[in-house]
Amino acid sequence: MSALVLAEISDKGIAALTYGLGAIGPGIGIGYLVGQSVQAMARQPEAAGMVRTTMFLGIAFVEALALIGFVVFFLGQ
């Protein structure tokens, strides 16, 4: 019985670690997206409104990937 409980805890721990590693990608993506957007707004201030709108759309799509991974993590348990 105790081996079964240990295996279950181990599987959940591995799943949590896997999701944590998977969340690194969207974090890097959002950081890169915002950095490039700020750089674009600094270079062409007259296009800042369009760049900002596109940036927020990109952030929403990248964040959706992280949330999908989060839901799949809970469905797999």
Name the features.
single chain; 77 residues; mainly alpha
Class computed from helices, strands and strand pairing: mainly alpha
Mean pLDDT: 83
Task: Report helical residue fraction.
Answer: over 70%
Helical segment count: 3
Distance between the termini: 19 Å
- As a percent range, the share of strand residues is under 5%
What about the largest sheet?
none
Q: How would you sum up the global shape? A: elongated
Integer-rounded radius of gyration:
19 Å
Helix-strand sequence: HHH
- The count of strands amounts to 0
Low-confidence stretches: none
Summarize the structure.
This protein has 77 residues and is mainly alpha-helical. It is built from 3 helices and no strands. Helices cover 90% and strands 0% of the residues.
Notes on the protein architecture:
The chain is mainly α. Helices cover 90% and strands 0% of the residues. The chain has three helices and no strands. Helix 1 runs antiparallel to helix 3. The model has no long low-confidence stretch (mean pLDDT 83).
Task: Please write out the topology.
Layout: H1 2-22, H2 24-43, H3 48-75
Helix pairs in contact: 1-3, 2-3
